[in-house]
Design goal:
The chain has 133 residues and is α/β, with parallel strands linked by helices. It has helices at residues 10-23, 63-75, 96-102; strands spanning 5-7, 29-36, 40-49, 79-86, 108-113, 116-123, 126-132. It has a seven-stranded mixed β-barrel with strand order 1-3-2-4-5-6-7.
């Protein structure tokens, strides 16, 4: 387990779960906008971004949508603190592709799958579970 907590609202969790259902059988994705503290990452808003791959097993944040959200976040004094995506037909654990991609990022990954919704981050090459509060 990680030494940080992810504070995310029930509304944002519901939004992500709704995205899972609305985009099934394809993966949905988006970004987590908020504030990263030393022990707590606070999500102020989960923002859907088009999955430019539109496949059942992978995602790619549409660059135009991503940069718009990033710019809007900066105007509000916020950061991109992570991403979310869905696993419409598999558990909400990082896939091999997720693990490889997580190595290139420092943020939180929220994954919604057939068994619920969970958060992770990569630390020194190891995937850590992050408690959602």
């Amino acid at each position: 387990m990680s030494d940080i907590e992810l504070h995310i609202s029930k509304n944002d969790i519901t939004l992500i779960l709704d995205e899972l259902e609305a985009n099934r059988p394809f993966e949905a994705c988006g970004v987590l906008v908020g504030i990263e503290g030393r022990d707590i990452v606070t999500v102020k808003q989960a923002v859907p971004v088009k999955n430019s791959k539109r496949t059942e097993r992978s995602f790619e944040l549409d660059p135009t949508g991503f940069y718009k959200v990033w710019g809007d976040a900066e105007k509000e004094g916020l950061d991109i603190v992570g991403v979310y995506h869905t696993h419409p037909s598999s558990p909400s654990k990082p896939s091999d592709w997720d693990k490889k991609t997580m190595q290139d990022t420092s943020g939180i990954w929220v994954i919604a799958g057939i068994d619920g919704i969970f958060a992770y981050r990569m630390v020194k090459g190891m995937v850590e579970f992050v408690e959602m509060v």
